Amino acid sequence: MNKFCILHLHQFNSLEEFQQLLQENRNIEYPQTGCVEDQLYCSIIDVPDFPLTDVTTLEFDDELVNYLYFTGSIETQKRVGPYDNHGQLKPRDERVSKFSSDILVFENRNRLFAIVFCGATNGKKVMKKLFPSVTFGLIEPFNDELTEDVLYWLFKHYIDVPDEPLSEEHDIFVTALESYMGTTRDNVNAVKGDGTRISTILGTLAFLFQNDKLKALRPQIQHMDETVLVEMRLTGTLTLWPNSYAGNYFRALTGIEKQNALAIYVFLKILPSVVESYNNNINDQAWSPQLKIDFVKRLGSMIRQRVDAELIRIEQESRGLVDIPLMENDEDEDIDEFDE
């Protein structure tokens, strides 16, 4: 499993320009608030087989992508006073937190992007510390245009027409749904479902029917001949499972190279195709607020039918008239509701 987020480095048009500036600013020091005896240290660390003096090249489809890969290590000050009650400086591990993450910086069509292999919150923090704006310019999270409505549309498309492409203009399919996460509309409870058949279980239908807030979806997506399992969160965090990949482009790759290739592929091919397919559906009037309402109404009918059938089963079983098996529901397909 590889968690990552994506940021746009606005100042740069080429990887070579960034590479030179990176070499000149591999170590940065920051002052500690209220402490003159110590500094905070942030640094760029080489990863074996990925020297910063050379770029790695990835080729697939019509893309030729050059990238740098390294580890970023940062220190931040803990929210405690630096001195004890006797005025002595506390041990460093009580005052300073350390965090590191692998980072991939690549060029695409005269634009530079960073894939940081951690969640979006930590990714922004790492990039801000390692690459101060006074030197590296504006760096901000990339707008992937994923919204709650996009995730809901993906869910609906898979339930209704799983064998059809997301749009006629793109060779892209949702071949499975393995997980979702959301919250109730009052933001009191978080809800999630896991399992290869979550789209068929009653709890999932109830979640969609109640129009609760959908915040993450884990579809298996087939783009042309490439199949990738990717979790999309509205926070900007994405997650990949390289072992689930099936396709031709990257089957010879392993380890870090495979991780990097899949992350780049999701960014350059899968996310744009999903968003463009969603927009095509809106333009073609295949998706709209009214169609969402109609879908919710159908969900209500499906839920009622499922509940009525279960009530009949329970009543007949209680009378000893018939031994009817339980409604299908695998053990690994469940819904959990818990306080945030």
Q: Which tags fit this structure?
A:
32% helix, 14-stranded antiparallel β-sheet, 340 residues, single chain, alpha+beta, 2 domains, disordered C terminus, globular
Fold and architecture overview:
The protein is of the alpha+beta class and 340 residues long. Strands 1, 2, 3, 4, 5, 6, 7, 8, 9, 10, 11, 12, 13 and 14 form a 14-stranded antiparallel sheet that branches. The protein contains 8 helices and 14 strands. The protein has 2 domains: 2-141, no CATH class; 148-289, no CATH class. Helix 6 (202-209) runs antiparallel to helix 8.
First-residue to last-residue Cα separation:
24 Å
Helix content: 25-40%
Alpha-carbon Rg, integer:
24 Å
Give, in order, the helices and strands: EHEEEEHEEHHEHEEHEEEHHE
For the secondary structure, the number of strands is 14
- Could you tell me the mean pLDDT? 85
Structural class: alpha+beta
- Overall number of domains: 2
Biggest beta sheet attributes: 14 strands, antiparallel
Proportion of beta-strand residues: 25-35%
pLDDT under 50 segments (min length 5)? 326-340
Which descriptor suits the 3D outline?
A: globular
Total number of helical segments? Answer: 8
Quick recap:
By secondary structure, this protein is of the alpha+beta class. The protein has helices at residues 15-24, 92-95, 120-130, 133-136, 148-160, 202-209, 255-283, 289-318, and strands at residues 2-9, 27-32, 35-46, 56-60, 63-77, 96-108, 111-116, 139-141, 172-183, 189-194, 213-223, 226-233, 238-240, 334-339.
